[in-house]
């Protein structure tokens, strides 16, 4: 039973240990922040969604990348389109809220919202993300 409990608690204990280490040493805990990618139909929709994300303080920064070609399967058919991609920098703990909010305002039936944890980066920039996105 003790072994089972230790195995079940390992992720939580590891997370706490990493946070304590980070607080004591000032080092970055990999995965504390994430970058979300959100596909948009056009530049106006991308700007509207980016501004809405920023107004809700769900991100420290949103880049709006230029138009790109996209191929995807939709309802069994190969679709070819153009899209604008948003790169959203935020806390990993905000990804669920960000995803829910974007789905509520995005015109696509199934919007592309994918997040990737940030493993490493400029420590000052990562600190800046944390300072500009409120904790839960």
From TrEMBL:
Cited Gene3D superfamilies: 3.30.70.120
UniProt keyword Lipoprotein present: no
Pfam families: CutA1
Listed GO biological process terms: response to metal ion
UniProt-recorded Gene Ontology molecular function terms: copper ion binding
Matches recorded under PANTHER family: CUTA DIVALENT CATION TOLERANCE HOMOLOG-LIKE (PTHR23419:SF2), DIVALENT CATION TOLERANCE CUTA-RELATED (PTHR23419)
Record-stated family: Belongs to the CutA family.
Assembly and interaction partners: Homotrimer.
Protein name: CUTA protein
